[in-house]
Amino acid sequence: LNFVNKIKRNMATIPPKKFTLRAFRIANPNLTESNSGILRLLEQVLTPVSTAAQRRMTLNVDDPDRELLANYIWSANNSFLFGTILRIIPADNGGVISEELFNQPTITMAQITAGSTDQSQYKDHFYFALNNDYLVTTLPGTTNIKRLQTYLNWLLEHERGERLFEFTELTKLPDGVRLSQIKEIQFIGGGTTINARPTGSESRSLSVRLNDITDDILNSVIGDTESLDAIRNNQLIEARLLLKVKSKPRDMERDEFQRIMGAVATNITSESGLILRTKDGNKYTGEEIKVKKTVSIECLEANRIVEEQLKQEMERFLSEIRNQQNG
Question: Quick one: average pLDDT of 68-96?
């Protein structure tokens, strides 16, 4: 009873934690299937006898950091999966400071224990939920979705065959804007690679690395190699790509526009790096183009949330996305 009362007091005094949920479409290249089928494959991997140790993905042979699906919960009918991804590092990478040492006037390096290679330390974490069509996550907007995409493809390596699952950021037209009003789209970034593959009989693939454009221009204008290196090293020049919309956007289907914008937005992690301008002079950034939702989740302690509450908010968002995309 005392423990329950303590939790209630903490929840009453600790402010809720806000999360920004980002939304992604799970690509389905198989025309004979109605959806991606990713849940069926995850069921084959996440069995009752599977262990967390089997889900640790090494990032690099020279880097001891690992990605881990630490916890997961299936919905009652297995229609969606809620999970927690942890980034962990070996304990011997960083010193462990015991609490009693903070009561001393000073702490020496000799007093800091190194830990051992068979121990792990928590680095950071995020949550995600997915069904066969869409994925939502608390992964920060400054972090590319490829972090989660890479992990899930690794986890399903033996079940998915030669297929690689791809997550494309969901986008929308800003409120009150019609396709026919779009004038131009601008992308701003350093090493950003843009890949847009619209569908249709006359579709063309756009693959642009903004740094390559910058380097080509610099090489043609400045012949001094030393000056070029100084410009690059100090990031004195910013690469921008401007696409003028010449064809009639009203002839373009909404789904096709969203696929093109999604392919671009997925690789732009800065909200200000994606700008849409309309013919009436209005300007919209990625903040208004990407599909997102802010939720407030109660906290048990400073760094512990009510995860079931977040799970239900993600489930609700997945349902909202389905209705919006089908509407």
Answer: 86
